[in-house]
Amino acid sequence: MDRGTSAAVRRLRLHVRGAVQGVGFRPYVYGLATRYRLGGFVANDPHGVVIEVEGERAADFVTALPLEKPPLARLDDISVHAVGAIASEQFCIRASEQGRVSTRIVADAATCKECLRELFDPNSRFYHYPFINCTHCGPRYTIAERLPYDRAATAMKRFAMCRACADDYANPGSRRFHAEAIACPDCGPKLSHEIADIAAAIATGKIVAIKGLGGYQLLCDARDDEVVCRLRQRKQRDQKPFAVMVPAVDAVADIADADSAELALLESSPRPIVLMRSRERLAPAIAPELSRLGVMLPVAPLHHLIFDALNTAHARSGESWAIVATSANPGGEPLLIDNREAERRLAGIADLVVTHDRDIVTRADDSVAAVVSGRTQFIRRARGYVPEPVRLARSVPPILAVGGALKSTVTVTRGNEAFVSQHIGDLDTAEGVRFFEETVQHLLSTLDVEPVIVAHDLHPNMASTRFAETRGNRLIAVQHHHAHAAAVLAEHGSAGPALALVLDGFGHGSDGGNWGGELLACDGAHFRRLGHLAPMKMPGGDRAAREPWRMGASVLHGLGQGDVIATRFKSQPQALRLGAMLDQPGVPATTSAGRLFDAAAGLLGLCPVQSYEGEAAMKLEALVRSPHIAQDGWIIERGVLSLAPLFERLAARIDPVEGAELFHGTLAAACVDWIGRTARATGISSVALSGGCFLNAILSEEIVRGCIAAGLSPLLPRQMPPNDGGLSLGQAWIAALTLLEQQDLEGTA
Predict the structure, then answer these.
(1) Which of 355, 367, 362, 227 has the alpha carbon at shortest distance from 296?
(2) By the number of CB atoms within 10 A of the CB, which of 149, 481, 633, 747 ranks highest?
(3) Beta bridge partners of residue 383, listed in sequence order
């Protein structure tokens, strides 16, 4: 190509940061540069992708670059500088540059449409191959060992590419150019069982364990109540709901009522489990006494192949197949990922265990989400979303935040990004703690970060706190509900001032008390407790959190009706002595909003004893169709919100549906009144809404609606769950603000 010596011929150097490795970005750049007849090169480097283009249309290339990017690419920043021309005739793709890493890996992505077409094309060399993928889909984070994201640094390094795959991998015009997980039946991973055998097992009432993207899953027929009950018995999971997978989005209408936002979320590349209203057409044992059902679409090629075999060889007249798809983690432990361990540990649960020989480097559970107030709200953020970072309002020092004890996550900051780990789970087992420690090490190593400080919960006896104390770093302890509030502010790019309503189960208070329903003022790294829910006694301590009837009895005692506890809860052996226990000094008390839900459920005769966390609250929510407000149902004095008038109504043995609707409507109205009075007194109109109780869609939507009507600006968590899964982000933001404030003070000293 003859460029001559025209002044219009110039060479530009671009640096692109973001999720640009392993997503087909380099072949995209190659194709774009070729279209504009440019010379130069593109390469991965530790910071992202570096590009040099030379030619008359270099400026056009820069303009077009972000417009047609591959579907999984995320461009955070593009810097452009003119450099000296070197008369480059060709454009090429260079090998990755090494160095200190500041780029990132993208999350795993569901099978794309092009791969799905090839999966079922008899003329394709990928026909019925359960590990088909390309740069637009497939495993990423779960197989990556380190950065830069190259095949040698993934679980695919042991699979030598055949000639056909090597040609695709080296061809810039191929969708599989530098697709690090590329494989085919001749050279890639192998499944331990035939698809037909897996489908036959499910169709004949068997429980099947399969190795998924981020761990093992248990599958069975979702319309067969007997097999679902058998799964519950074997997994020792009494009532907690199971998720259900259907073959395609048009099959959803048969089992659930979903709006367009829910269906769009369901079909998105991360393929989360989406909560939607059940039509109660599946086995009753899937989600006992709940109104919402967790639904997901196939994520991996293996899922598509199983449904295809079911629909072909085991077709059902008038209804599509739906299968239970639940995590294979015995006894609440972390997901199983090792083949031998899975075969051993799942032998008493699954009738068939299906393995393959591609290792899972990082376990990641399925993400769970809902649509609240028209937008996505996470219940569990994991596969498909991690390790996508939260962009912070400013660059901060490198920080490790270790979260809490339940629904654990950890956060690592790098520059203006906060990387929140996948859902780890509860740290009440040795296996859970080991997974937590593995996650910390993997995240720090992958991001190449050495933290200058470690943030942890204020509670001294949490496993995460004890881990922080062993690190040898400087420590910052963060109050639990302050962290909940800060997580919301961090993702909204705010350091305050803001109000925060935190409705939660339990958190160690600054005064050593048992907090959980808090109204805070947040400003920078600091907070003030402006108000709280009226304290309630917890007879039996932590046992009251597991047995809602005890909180119902506590309310009766507080209303002066302690003499009816024994008869009201006569099915409970301890009821005879509970009234006397509540009369004694020293009974622990709490301001927990979670215990409010338990008390209401206890009084209404719902779920006297819980088999899983949040069961009573979820069953209470399931009864609500239209929330109602009990006039004069609350009292606010000196910042303390009491719902005693409402509980007098609930104690009168009213219909459970009426009681549930009164409880939700009145609690929401009381909270809006509480926030509104405080906003007027402080002059602060922005309010962060967080805590596990905001997983309740009715409560969230009613409070948001009420705040907007009152002229307030409510902020809900959107990138993180409102429960303890968001704690580590809030801890990291508070630690960052603390360090920045200290640096500012030192700078002015």
Answers:
(1) 367
(2) 481
(3) 366
DSSP state letters, 687-698: EEEESGGGG-HH
The correct answer on CATH 3.40.720.10 for the domain covering 10-93 is no
- Where do you find CATH 3.30.70.100 in the chain? 10-93
Give kind and range of the element (H or E) at residue 9.
none
* Mean pLDDT across the chain: 93
Strands (E), 514-605: 514-523, 526-533, 536-537, 589-590
0.90 surpassed by pTM:
yes
Tell me: the pLDDT tens digits for 309-326?
Answer: 999 999 887 789 999 999
Per-residue pLDDT of 386-414, as tens digits, reads 999 999 999 999 999 999 999 999 999 99
Q: Is the dihedral of CA 688, 692, 693, 696 positive or negative?
A: positive
Residue type, 250: D
**Domain over 532-715 is classified CATH 3.40.47.40:** no
Q: Which amino acid is at 299?
A: V
Tell me if 19 sits within 8 A of 104, measured CB to CB.
yes
**pLDDT exceeds cutoff 80 at 98:** no
Question: What is the full DSSP assignment across 168-211?
Answer: HHH-TTSTTTT-TT---TTTS--BSS-HHHHHHHHHTT--EEEE
Provide the β-strand partners of residue 326: 218
CATH architecture of 195-368: Alpha-Beta Complex (3.90)
C-alpha distance from residue 712 to each of 437, 488, 489, 641 (Å): 41, 16, 15, 19
Q: Which helix (H) or strand (E) holds 375?
A: strand 375-380
